[in-house]
Amino acid sequence: MTEFKIDLLFPGQSQEVGPPQPVMAMVGDDIVLPCQLETPVDAVSMTMEWGRPDLDPRFVYVWHDGQELLVEQNKAYKGRASLSINKLKHGDLSLTLSKVNISDNGIYRCYIPKLSEEHLVELLVGVASSPSISLSGLDRNKGLVVLKCNSTGWYPEPEVLWLDGEGNLLSAGPTETVRGPDDLYTVSSRVTVEKRHSNSFTCRVQQNHINQTRETHIHVPDDFFEVQSSSSSTTAGLAVSLAVCILVILILGFFVWKFSESEINISYF
Hints:
- The chain contains 3 helices and 16 strands.
- The protein is of the alpha+beta class.
- The radius of gyration is 36 Å and the shape is rod-shaped.
- It has helices at 2-9, 85-88, 230-268, and strands at residues 21-26, 31-33, 48-51, 59-64, 67-68, 81-82, 95-97, 106-112, 117-126, 132-139, 144-154, 159-164, 176-179, 185-194, 200-207, 212-219.
- The chain starts with a helix and ends with a helix.
- The protein has 2 domains: 2-126, Sandwich (Immunoglobulin-like), CATH 2.60.40.10; 132-225, Immunoglobulin-like (Sandwich), CATH 2.60.40.
- Strand 8 and strand 9 (117-126) form a beta hairpin.
């Protein structure tokens, strides 16, 4: 009987409304989805629905005849959705969601059939993680250092930027992105740097939609940028060649001595 009442009251019809109001949150937050009647009347005795059209069942929370109606509530929201009776008295139908997660992302519809009034809210739940920087390689011939930045556990997909000690953007290679089975993104990026005034470099990972930025700094010692000059290489090569020649001469001298000693022993006998 209750199921029939819900389907009858909320047939899914909608009036023309404006774009959804954005609400941003981080995983684990308790958040409020706003819904205020255009005329602030007492709504305690009214019937209203919070729903998500992309879910089945679509009901996130239903209020009817002064109480919660949880028969057809989507299981994902059981125990996590609530209204304030005190706010209902002033026409505030805002929904509180506790411990939001990635699967809560979507467009929510606040619908009051008696007033043929509805409001849309778009919830964007994000996750952010601090990056780490490691030394990826050295080019001694050119005095260059390759740095790698890695950050695991982002949503939505972030972008990676490299900056020098003065805050100038550095030209880096393409960002590598992997999306895991938990829908979280892992990003990594490499940049090749040369010696600078401070030798300080920053990897910044940011997601503008959820207004989140994380960054990590690294200082590279001067000796990492030392260039192995051609004269040094030539000197080193000559030293090795000389050492080999000396070794060969010593070995030959040893065999000549042994051979001479053998001839002396034979002559004696």
